[in-house]
Amino acid sequence: MSIEWGLSRQTRLWPRAQYDCSLYAGTVPLPTHVTDLISYELLLSVAELGSIGRAGAAHGMSQPAASARLKALESRVGVALLHRGQRGATLTATGELVAGWAERVIAEAAELATSIAMLRTDRHSHIRIAASLTIAEYLIPRWLITLRSHDTSITPALTSGNSVDVAASVLDGRADIGFVESPDLPSGLQSKDVARDELVVVVAPDHQWVRRTITASELAATPLVTREPGSGTRLALERVLRTAGPLAAPLLEVSSTTAIKAAVIGGLAPAVLSSLAVSAEIAAGTLARVHTEGLDLRRFLRAVWPAGRELRGPSSDLLVVALRSPQP
Questions:
Q1: Is 19 domain-assigned?
Q2: Which of 202, 200, 159, 166 is nearest to 181 (CA)?
Q3: What whole-number distance in Å separates Cα of residue 38 and Cα of residue 241?
Q4: C-alpha dihedral sign at 282, 286, 290, 291
Q5: Overall pTM surpassing 0.85 (yes/no)
Q6: Could you tell me if 182 and 280 lie in one domain?
Q7: Cβ-count burial of 109 within 10 angstroms (0-12 exposed, 13-18 middle, 19+ buried)?
Q8: How do 225-226 and 252-253 pair as beta strands?
Q9: Are 238 and 197 in a shared domain?
Q10: How far apart are CA 166 and CA 169, in angstroms?
Q11: Cα distance between residue 166 and residue 277, in whole Å
Q12: How close are the terminal C-alpha atoms of the chain, in Å?
């Protein structure tokens, strides 16, 4: 190793060694006399303050505790590091050498600690959200506006899909929290109801169902424009109609709520959608709501996260916002 000299905190000259780090990489664990950085920090404080007692106080230690720690360090290193006297303590020549090496390591350790803290802060400011389409389009945006009004450092990333996709994203760690419409959940998830919703039957304004009430069996026997398999809306409807008779095959399967509405408006077939998704079209008269008999199409929308894991940081904050938001 070669020695170069650098300035300490009190413009004191410390010897610094240039190490070939490859000597230690992937070989044996560092020995204990190297890993005890607190004792080396204490040694540097003795050099700076000229007293074991004052150095100990700077580190929250009593004088006897600091002295014992430094003696233990000397024992592990195998050389004397300090001259102890009635007026204080100074470093030996070997102590000066060791202090120079230690100062560099401690500076690197401090940088590591700072970097890790920044990494954790950055990670905690991000939130990955997976939500089924209806929730992603009609509820999540206003929840995020409220969330960021409390903490503008939060950076949300939202992905949307059907409820099966959302559950899979949460289970495999691609999302921190999910929001689903499905009445069924796979094992490994825990959930919390966050909002109420109602499915409604909609048709084009000139459809024959507009001026009458339909039954569950009639709806079950009618080919509909539906979402794809795995959709929470489709799963909820199929569960309600399970006892109403054989279910007709869909006339058209579409993975987009907007496309379903366009098909219904065009007169292709009826559909069953969330009231959140069709309220504007019903108010505008481009879609008509059909009255039903013997059907309870109300449902809960739920937040989901891995079972046994406590939500923290922005994920927990988002759940609170969802729970406290006015019901749609």
A1: yes
A2: 166
A3: 69
A4: positive
A5: no
A6: yes
A7: middle
A8: parallel
A9: yes
A10: 5
A11: 19
A12: 71
